[in-house]
Structures are given as C-alpha cells and as structure tokens.
UniProtKB/TrEMBL annotation:
Keywords: Oxidoreductase
Name of the featured protein: Glutamate dehydrogenase
One Pfam family in the UniProt entry: ELFV_dehydrog_N
Family under the similarity heading: Belongs to the Glu/Leu/Phe/Val dehydrogenases family.
GO molecular function annotation: glutamate dehydrogenase (NAD+) activity
Residue ranges constituting the Glutamate/phenylalanine/leucine/valine/L-tryptophan dehydrogenase dimerisation domain according to the UniProt record: 42-102
GO biological processes: L-glutamate catabolic process
PANTHER family the UniProt entry points to: GLUTAMATE DEHYDROGENASE, GLUTAMATE DEHYDROGENASE 1, MITOCHONDRIAL
Higher taxonomy: Bacteria, Pseudomonadati, Pseudomonadota, Gammaproteobacteria, Enterobacterales
EC number: 1.4.1.3
Length: 126
C-alpha cells in the first residue's frame, strides 16, 4: 500500500483506524477485492485558509478541510470540518466512513426492493 504524502504517521489517527478496518475486511470481499486499493485513497482533498479579523484588530488564519472520498456511485457527501482540534486525517476518515455507510444503505434498499417487487414504494413504507 502506498503511503499518502499528506497523511499523518500517527498510528492513533482516524485515517489509520479506517485503513486498519479496510485491511481487516479485505479478505472477505471476494470479487470486489480489486477495489480495496481505491478505498485507500480519497478522490479529492481541499485545504483552505480562512483569514479572520479578530475584535482586537489582529488577523488570525484558520485552516479548513473538505474531502470527497469516492464519487463512483454519484455525487458524494464529503467531510467538512472547521475546528482547531480537527486535522486532515480525521476529515479523510469521516469522508471514507460516509462512503461505506452510503454503500451499505443503498444495498439495503435494493434488498428490500427485491423482497417486495410488486409493492409500491408507499406500500413498503407502511
């Protein structure tokens, strides 16, 4: 696995936790295992600097992050955080977990539709 140049070396970072989770489930993915490498790399990361004039007249710079992990299933919901304690690794992990969560939710909807093929969406909701 290639190391991302902008990822932290800290073994306790959220991103490294995500990578360990991917490694743990990779043997169970079967025919989807070639996609494991794609899950290890975010599609896009944006780092912004926000200058803010404080009440005392000084200008402080705040860093913000936005990460889109995977867009292969359509528009993605990436992670966005503005907080002094948040770093890029945490936002990358949140974005990656959102990718996994949305794939899981979509597969549940598909299974439900297969179980009730003749029922309308409203009938299934009741």
């Amino acid at each position: 696995m290639d190391k991302l140049s902008y990822a932290s070396d800290s073994s306790t970072s959220a991103w490294n936790t995500y990578l360990q989770q991917i490694e743990r489930v990779a043997p169970y993915l079967g025919e989807l295992s070639p996609w494991v490498d794609t899950l290890r790399h975010p599609k896009r990361a944006l780092i912004v600097d926000i200058p803010v004039q404080m009440d005392d007249g000084t200008i402080r710079h705040f860093e913000g992050y936005r990460v889109q992990h995977n867009l292969s299933r359509g528009p993605g919901k990436g992670g966005v955080r503005y907080h002094p304690d948040v770093d890029l690794n945490e936002v990358m992990a949140l974005s990656a977990w959102m990718t996994i969560k949305m794939c899981r939710a979509e597969s549940a909807v598909r299974r439900r539709q297969r179980r009730h093929p003749r029922r309308s969406v409203l009938a299934v909701g009741r």
